[in-house]
Structure formats: structure tokens, C-alpha cells
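A quick aside before the break. I want you to see a complete sequence-to-structure record at least once, exactly as it would be stored in a machine-readable document. Don't worry about memorizing anything.
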Amino acid sequence: MGGIYLLRDHEDGSAHPSQGAIQRRYRAQGFDDGVVLDLDGWRGRHFEFAVGGPEGLYHHGTDLIAVAGTLAYDGQMGRAALAALLADAAPPSLDWSRLAGQFVALVRKAGRSFLFTDYFAAFQLFRSADGRVVSTSLLGMLDAVPHVRFDRQGLYEYAFNIAPIGDRTVFADITMLGPGTMLELVPGGSILHPLVKPLPGAIVVESLADRIERHRHHLAAVIAPHLDWFGDHVRCALSGGLDSRLVLAALRAGGCRPTTYVYGPPHSADVRASTAIGATLGFPVEHIDKSEHPLDSDTFPAEVTRAFHQLDGLPNFGNIFDGGANVAAMAARHADGVLAASGGCGEVYRDFFFLRDRPLTPAVLASTFFARFTARDATALFDPRQFLDAIADEIAAGLGVSRTDKVPRVLIEQAYPRIRCRALFGREISTEARYSAYLMPFLDHQLVADAVGLPLVLKQAGAFEGMLLNAISPELARLPSAYGHHFAEPPSRAHRRAEWSTRIRPTWLRRHSYALQRRLRPVVDDHGHLPAPDLMSMVLDPDMPIMRRYFALDQVADGGLLRRIACLEYLAEQLGSQLKS
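That is the input. The structure line, written in C-alpha cells, reads:
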């Protein structure tokens, strides 16, 4: 289930000229030669996981199903899931209650071929503007199109907010297949079929005990098919917070004893809490400090090139300049084809946006949460109002409203899984799940449907998530955390007060929070600084002439922003004359 690409034949029946180039790209990303897909007017290949895992290709006569990513169907994975889905499928109609995971699927049945994504389109499928190429690899897509131009909005979204949102990419000539569309591939091109993927729009009224039991059951049901397939061959992250601990609790409750690891400096709260958990419960927790990964001038250019390929060009945080630390960590997560489990998207159980419980517009959400910029960092090409309006339009489209509609707070909660998780975690899911199966249970659409129906008061300070953890594993819940309290008790006053102080801030002030921080001090993130200039000059022009068109680089005092700008510059320099202004 590692990857898929398809290219449309020319009208005379000859193959698309980029077949060889895109094939070489997938090979450079660690795949074998794959299996040829020859459809009516379309040709391409399917690639299994680069390291190992459940099979992703199944034929039945002339019918077939090919999957990239991690898919479960009727509680099964691998060949059994594919066979059952192919037998039952009648696209463009699908029974989403029987589908789980994050994936791209190609179904060829009764002479018709369809491409679709998971419920939230988290696993990324790129499409060329002319409709002639689809690819699960961004770099593969770039190998198959003659010219590209930067999309200014997407470029600024990547730089300022870590990832473009909606169907947008950093390129005007490349988009992603969205959650509301299924593609039917036909000899002359493709037909777009609309999909409806609803989530509850109201708070569910029930007792707290029933609510906890229902969520406990759904989490177990999401994890069960993975454990049936992998058993104890699972590698699970751990930290001092709630999300990864809840995943670990659910895995252990299902009978799995995964290997665990924690990232961070030796004396960080995450490392202290995680190693204490392991020591108390009697299992080892591997400690990995990526900041200690050496930077060697002899190998630095090769490591940057390797990371660029392995992380498909534009990883979320621009981490291709770390001497191979993130590539090494990813290889360890997927060693021997184990299931890699993540607590990502766990904030679906919590008050992620810290907004008051009242109707809000998508425009307000855009300006309070996505305004992580100061206009001084950009050139005159950046228009703050247009930037936020475009984000508000993307949020509104995801919620099925207009930018200025006042919508209930419960509907605003859907923006977290539909918009933020898809953008932020979609890149991670798509990169990780090339190598072996990747489990992100908190983005399962049926679990999300339950979570968005939680009363907001239960989400605040992680109250409900802590209760759920305590119901599943009291022994894990009562161990210390990075919050200063354990999860077998209600959140502390300090925890509640910290959230409350953000929630009561006026939205107009929230819009300017980042800019105010920048006036006080340089901003840093958890992903490290760029290496010294002498190393960086080995891999890109230190003046960054291409990005200097978009950014006032001498003004940038944000290490994460500068790293992402450098990643964009590296990508642009690799494209050379293929990149048009």
C-alpha cells in the first residue's frame, strides 16, 4: 500500500512521455519496480509498502483494487479486506461505515475505474492542472509535468502555517483530490463524482457513563483490525501528554505489547514522564534526542538530498537540513515493516481552537488561528487580508457554509478534523505510510463523528480525554504527566486557568498574538534551527534569490519559518528552469 501513479495516454494511444521519469522517482524513494496498471486510456504502477505490511493489490479476473496507505474494511486488513471491498463496491457509491484508515484507492470493476481517498482525504493524491497525471508523490508529480508555477497563497500557507489547506498545494499547476470528489478514469480524461461525507451537527445528549463507554468501544474497534494483523509488531510514540498515552492504553487493552519511544532532550517533561511510565509498568522506552544527530560537512549535502527524496520534497516543518535525523527516525519507526502508531489528531477530543462557546464565522476562525505571520516578513506580494480571506473560504467550503455565515460552535469543531488535521497530518500520513502501515486512530471518521458531538465543557483542559484514558487503563492514567497532574483526577486549576486565559482573549487580539510575540523576542519551535551558514551554502544559494521575491529574509526572526523558507528555496533550485515565474 505504498504508492500509486497514473498517466493518461495521448489521444493516439501512445504512452505519456513521463512514464520513465516518474518511475525513476518512485524507485529513488525506496520502492521496487511496482506492478503495472493498464487501464482504458491510463497507465501507471502500484507499489507495495517499501518496507513491509499488508498487501495493497488484489485482482479478480479483470477487476482489481489497488491501495496506497492503510485501509481496513469490515474489520479486516490486507488481502481479505481488499477482496471484500472489491466484491461489495459499487462506485461511485460506497458504504463508508465499513471503511477505515487513511488511503488512496483505485477500484476497477465491470469495466469502470475509480479513484478516491479516505473520508477526510488525509492521504494525499496529487493531480495536474491538465488532468493527465495523478500521483501519491509530490516529487513524482513534478517529474511528470513540464512546467510549474508557485501558487502564492499555497506558498505563504506552507511558510506561515506549516501546510497548505484544502486542496491547494504550493504549486498553481498541482492540486490535491479533495474529500468530496471521486474520480472516474475514462479514455478521454476523468469524470468527477461528488461525495457527501457528513458529520453530526449537534451535541449528543447522553449520560457521561454511556458517552465514555461508547468512545471506548469505538477506539477499540478502530484499533482491532490492526492488532489482528500485526499482533505485538507495533511501535508506538509516547510523551508526557494525553494523546499518545491514550493510544498506548488502547493498544494494551487490545492485548498488544508495543515497543515504545520518546523524542526530546534528556531532561524534557516528555522524556521524564515517558521513561517514568516505562519504569513503573516494566517496559523499556527508547529515548531519541534528534538534536544530537551529528552534522558532518562531508555528508551534509548527500543527507539533504536523501531527506528531500525520502520526505517527498516538502515535509511539514521543512526538516531536510538536520543531517538525516528525521529520515533516521522514520526508518526506525517502520523497521521490519511494523505498524507505526501515532497519537496525532488526538485534540479532536479537546478544545483545540480555544474559542468561546458561541456562533462564529469561518472568517473569525481564520483570523484567530491562521494569522501566524507578520507582514514585515513578506514582500509586497503578500496581502494579509487576501491571505486570510482565502483561508476563510477554504474553511467555509469544508464546513459547507460561506465565509461570513455565523455557524454554531459545534460546527466550528469540525474544522479541526476536516481542515487542520487534513492539512497538518495529511503530509505526515502520506509520507509515513509509504514505508509500512501507519495507525492514526483519532482521525477515523466514525470516532471523529463521536468526538465532534462532545459538549465543549468536556473538551476543555482534556477533561473527557482523561476520563476516557482512566476508563481504559487506570494504571496509565494515574502516572505523572507533563501537565503537572495525572489523568485519574480532574484537570488542575492551573491547567484550566491557562486555557481560560486564551479563550477569553478577544478575537481581534488573538489575530495579532503572533506579531506581538515577534516584537518581544525571536520565535523558536521544537524542530531545531537551520545549520550554520557554511553548511547551508553547500546545498543552496545563501542569498535564497527565489524566495527573496516572496519574503523579506532580513526581517525573519522565526527559526521555523526560516527553515520552511529554506526548504522552499531548495525545492525551487532543484526544479531549475522547470519553475516558471
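Two observations worth writing down. The longest strand covers residues 63-73. The radius of gyration is 23 Å. We'll return to this after the break.
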